[in-house]
Structure formats: structure tokens, C-alpha cells
């Protein structure tokens, strides 16, 4: 008997005239059962509520602390997907890198004209740059500072690279790189962006992962985006200007030799990955005011033997000393918003490593 027939039978039973039943005992039982069809008694309702409360408590107890594990599992899956997508992209597009990646850097070389922002190689040269943060202050806590997480920030090092030394990047598809307006990293209350008097301190930015996008304003008030793309198509003919980039200062953490020179790019919404990914994925573990896009690490060169990018400025791993890896340039890792690579996330998900 299906549900509909059962409901019909119960309805008929409720309306049945039990006075016609001759057996007194059977008639009494029927009348009691018929009376119960009108609803639960207060005692029965209390019992049901108590049972439901016990079940809910057991479920909540079992699920407590599992949200973070679920988020880590999602991040691991997304990182693997993004890494595979980069491999597919290089085969399909015949180039290693997409254009429109995020530099993770704020620069005074980004200039505002009304509601338009622009930047070029010459304006980046000699400007003031800072890795995305609140004036160099970072945190892993929600609504404390803003920009990159403290863990990610601590693994990056800003290096001014001679534009002529970046020919390999340009030849492998990096035709543009996005920078954010310099004042964004140092904004205070009532800071002005494109005619807006909105508070744009990074901790208050509602869409931090879109900070490198083109500026969007509504009725003169800033909505989101404070970035512009620097065109790298003429890199091969340049050599005197410098281009600020973020480099990973712990190559051994990614299974590379200490001599490896690794540059880091954020995969934001403007990244030209349309052939393999419709939208740039985000790391759900990142606090609301932090840059939550994933990043890729690209091996672009090597330092002389025994030298490391970590000692840039004091050792012999100057840009002029870099050894070009040529066709061996490759994406060697995907990082989450906390600066962890795939293996680190796997270890954290299994509880084998502290965050």
C-alpha cells in the first residue's frame, strides 16, 4: 500500500461510525485509537521533544570540530584541481603561464585618474612597493589588519627585478601582471580612492580577493577593486626598468634546492585561465578580510651554487647572478591562502602537522 492509500485509509477510519461495532471491547479500542488520530497529547509531545534534543546533541557532538577538517579537505581537492588545470593550460595554450595574474604587491606606480587606475613598467621602476598587507602588519585572525595572512606574508620576499631579466616569463605567457594602488596597503579612515571618501583600510575591504581587479565605483563611491595591469609584452626590449615581484624565500619547503628562484603569483579573478577554469577558486579557510585566492609558485631561475634567494641583497644571489632555466621554467606548486603547499595541507588534514 502506498503513502496516499495509507493516508486515505486513516482519514476514512477517523470518520467511521464505530457505534455500529457490536463487540464492546473492540469498539472501545477503536474509539481510543480514533481519538488519538486528532493529535499527540502534551506528554507525548514532551517525550518527542526530549528524544529529538538527545539526537540533536549527539549529532552536534559528533560534528564538533569537523568544519575545519571539511574546509581543509576542500582546499586539498581545489589545490590538486588547480595544479592539474595549470598542466592542462600549458598543453592547450602552448604556454606555461596565463596573463592577468596578481602580483600580491601594492605599488605607488599605480596611478589614479578619476575612476580609472593605470600602471606601466616605467612607473613601477623607482616606486614604493609593499607586499599586500596593512603597512607591513599582518595577522591570521579575522578583522585584524588585512591583506595576506601572516603565514603567507612571512614566506614572501619582495625583489626588484630588472625587466630585461624577465624575458623568459614573457616568452612563457606572462603578458601582464596586476598591481594594487599603493595607498591601499597604508589606507586609514577617510583615505581617498577615485573620489571616494570611504574607509578603505584593508581590514574593512569587503572583497579582499578582488583587490587587484579594475576599480569599480558607484556614484563616486568605491565598491571594490584597486588594481591595474602592467603590460609585459615589451619586456624583451627593456632592460633599464625594474619590476617588483614576490619571491618564495623557503624553496626547500617545496622540495626544491636552496638555489631555486621561485616567484609567486596570485590566481585572481582576472587570471586568463578561461580555457580550463571558469572562475578563480578561493580558500574557505581564510578569514573574511584576507586575500583568499590560491597562488602558484613558478621556478624562473637558479642562484649560484650554495646561494639562496633568502639572502638576496646580502649574498651573491643578485638578479645579475641568476642562471636562466630557459625551457625548464615550470609551475612547481600551488599554495593556499596560508602559504601551504599540497603536501602540507594533506598533513594538516590528517592531523600530522600544526597549522
How is this structure best described in words?
The chain has 355 residues and is α+β, with helices and mostly antiparallel strands. The protein has 2 domains: 3-62, no CATH class; 81-349, no CATH class. It contains 8 helices and 14 strands. The strands form 5 sheets. A 4-stranded mixed sheet has the order 4-1-6-9, with no helix packed on it. A hairpin with a 2-residue loop joins strand 2 (111-113) and strand 3. Helix 4 (66-93) runs antiparallel to helix 8. The longest helix is centred in the first third of the chain and has 28 residues, at 66-93. The radius of gyration is 30 Å and the shape is elongated. The model has no long low-confidence stretch (mean pLDDT 81).
Which helices and strands occur, and which strands form pairs?
Layout: H1 3-15, H2 24-36, H3 42-63, H4 66-93, E1 101-107, E2 111-113, E3 116-118, H5 121-124, E4 129-131, H6 150-154, E5 156-162, H7 167-171, E6 176-181, E7 216-218, E8 221-224, E9 227-231, E10 242-248, E11 260-266, E12 295-302, E13 323-324, E14 330-335, H8 342-349
Parallel strand pairs: 1-6
Antiparallel strand pairs: 1-4, 2-3, 5-10, 6-9, 7-8, 11-12, 12-13, 12-14
Helix pairs in contact: 4-8
Brief synopsis:
By secondary structure, the chain is of the alpha+beta class. The protein contains eight helices and 14 strands.
Amino acid at each position: 500500500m502506498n503513502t496516499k492509500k495509507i493516508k486515505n485509509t486513516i482519514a476514512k477510519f477517523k470518520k467511521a461510525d464505530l457505534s455500529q461495532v457490536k463487540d464492546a471491547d473492540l469498539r472501545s479500542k477503536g474509539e481510543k485509537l480514533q481519538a488519538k488520530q486528532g493529535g499527540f497529547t502534551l506528554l507525548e509531545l514532551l517525550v518527542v521533544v526530549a528524544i529529538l534534543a538527545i539526537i540533536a546533541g549527539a549529532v552536534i557532538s559528533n560534528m564538533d570540530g569537523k568544519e575545519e577538517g571539511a574546509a581543509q579537505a576542500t582546499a586539498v581537492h581545489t589545490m590538486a584541481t588547480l595544479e592539474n588545470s595549470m598542466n592542462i593550460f600549458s598543453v592547450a595554450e602552448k604556454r606555461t603561464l596565463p596573463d592577468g595574474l596578481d602580483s600580491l604587491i601594492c605599488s605607488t606606480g599605480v596611478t589614479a585618474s578619476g575612476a580609472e587606475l593605470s600602471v606601466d613598467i616605467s612607473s613601477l621602476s623607482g616606486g614604493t612597493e609593499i607586499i599586500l598587507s596593512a603597512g607591513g602588519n599582518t595577522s591570521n585572525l579575522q578583522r585584524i589588519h588585512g591583506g595576506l595572512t601572516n603565514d603567507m606574508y612571512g614566506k614572501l620576499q619582495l625583489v626588484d627585478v630588472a625587466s630585461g631579466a624577465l624575458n623568459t616569463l614573457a616568452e612563457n605567457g606572462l603578458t601582464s601582471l596586476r598591481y594594487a594602488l599603493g595607498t591601499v596597503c597604508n589606507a586609514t579612515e577617510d583615505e581617498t580612492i577615485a573620489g571616494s571618501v570611504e574607509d578603505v583600510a584593508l581590514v574593512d575591504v569587503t572583497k579582499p580577493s578582488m583587490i587587484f581587479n579594475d576599480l569599480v565605483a558607484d556614484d563616486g563611491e568605491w565598491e571594490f577593486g584597486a588594481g591595474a595591469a602592467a603590460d609585459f609584452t615589451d619586456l624583451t626590449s627593456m632592460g633599464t626598468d625594474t619590476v617588483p615581484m614576490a619571491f618564495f624565500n623557503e624553496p626547500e619547503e617545496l622540495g626544491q634546492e636552496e638555489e631555486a628562484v621561485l616567484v609567486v603569483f596570485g590566481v585572481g579573478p582576472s587570471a586568463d585561465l578561461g580555457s580550463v577554469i571558469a572562475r578563480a577558486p578561493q580558500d574557505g579557510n581564510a578569514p573574511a578580510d584576507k586575500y583568499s585566492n590560491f597562488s602558484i609558485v613558478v621556478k624562473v631561475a637558479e642562484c649560484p651554487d650554495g646561494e639562496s634567494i633568502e639572502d638576496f641583497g646580502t649574498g651573491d644571489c643578485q638578479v645579475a647572478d641568476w642562471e636562466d632555466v630557459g625551457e625548464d621554467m615550470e609551475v612547481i606548486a600551488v599554495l593556499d591562502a596560508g602559504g601551504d603547499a599540497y603536501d602540507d595541507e594533506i598533513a594538516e588534514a590528517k592531523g600530522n602537522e600544526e597549522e
